[in-house]
Amino acid sequence: ISEYTNLLLGLSPQVDFTDILAEGGRDDTFEDLALFGELTYHVTDKLSVTGGARVFRDKTKGTAGIPLPFASRTTSYFYGINPLDDYLLGGWEPYERTSKDQIFKANVAYDVSDDLLFYATWAQGFRPGGANALPKIDPFGNDNSAILTYDPDTATNYEIGAKTTLFNGRLRFNAAAFRLDYTDLQVNELAGLNLVASNAQAEVEGFEIETALALTSAITIGGSYTNLDARFTSDAISAGGTLPYEGNALPRSPESQFTLYADGEWRVGEGTLATRVDYQWTDDYFFDPSNNPEVLIPSYGLLSAFASWESDNGFKVSIYGKNLTDEEYRN
User: Fold this and answer.
1) Three-state secondary structure along the chain?
2) If we measure between CA atoms, which residue out of 163, 183, 232, 244 comes closest to residue 204?
3) pLDDT exceeds cutoff 90 at 138
4) pLDDT, tens digit (0-9, with 9 covering 90-100), for 258-300
């Protein structure tokens, strides 16, 4: 494009306008200083109560941005700026962000027997903020100062569940129901450039089950299933205005997923042969928070297999295959 621009303007000698339209990213350091721990009190032989806490300070410091060398040099040329300025339109912006907070956890567990446990958990989560790789002032004159960085988000999780083993440990069955409430959820927004906003509210409700059965001493079959209802509970506020996300499904959150598998382990020669075959199915889901039907990822299922033989003296050879049915999918 530099050569084309010189020909278009009829310049002689030619000016190096560069062929680089944009370059960018982040160069930063992240420091996490934390004090954390858990304490469990056994009220009875069967009932226990656990409390946990984490007090922390996160600090991120660095530079981020998207310099636009070609646009900057051509603009510099027309305004008579010499030498040509690669950072006239977009450059590297320093930033520093510090977060201080504390999160907590509480759990109650009851052992009905050696093979059956019920539990309830309340826990908080925290994800640090960061920086967007954006020019402070873009070529259209928009001021991106307000979105050069984004805030932390937090989550509160409520979960109840059961863990059990039956038939002398041959059958394992676990189940849980949960709810997650997100505050200031970090959302990847595609607005010409990738940027993260952190002002939406969301909730996730769902359940999951997992089971495994030892058919013989060598063969185990099992599976898992997860069901989610993950939705925004508010609109998001972006530099360009309100984003109508309320009621939309959260991106990359399929309603249903399940896995089926079979494991085997045998003595073969002077070694052990381990095998696994599994099938993983994922429901369709939206790729972005706008729930644009054009970026709906269709459901897909993947069949995979694995085999490994390891000799008693440590020599090991493995072979595996993924997507053996040649399923077309995107993720």
Assistant:
1) CHHHHHHHHCCCCCCCCCCCCCCCEEEEEEEEEEEEEEEEEECCCCEEEEEEEEEEEEEEEEEEECCCHHHHHHHHHHCCCCCCCCCCCCCEEEEEEEEEEEEEEEEEEEEEECCEEEEEEEEEEEECCEECCCCCECCCCCECHHHCEECCEEEEEEEEEEEEEECCCCEEEEEEEEEEEEEEEEEEEEECEEEEEEEEEEEEEEEEEEEEEECCCCEEEEEEEEEEEEEECCCEEECCEEECCCCCECCCCCCEEEEEEEEEEEECCCEEEEEEEEEEEECCEECCCCCCHHHEECCEEEEEEEEEEEECCCCEEEEEECCCCCCCCCC
2) 232
3) no
4) 999 999 999 999 999 999 999 999 999 998 888 888 889 999 9
Q: How many Å apart are CA 33 and CA 45, to the nearest integer?
A: 36
The answer to whether 278 and 261 have CB atoms below 8 angstroms apart is: yes
- Residue 195 confidence (pLDDT) above 70: yes
C-alpha–C-alpha distance, residues 236 and 248, integer Å: 11
Give the Cα separation of 307 and 319 in Å (integer).
Answer: 5
Q: What is the pLDDT of residues 9-46, one digit of tens each?
A: 999 999 999 999 988 778 889 899 999 999 999 999 99
| Phi/psi of residue 192, nearest 5 degrees | 80, -45
What pLDDT band is residue 240 in, cutting at 50, 70 and 90?
low
* Averaged pLDDT for residues 66-80: 91
Backbone φ, ψ for residue 133 (5° rounding): -85, 85
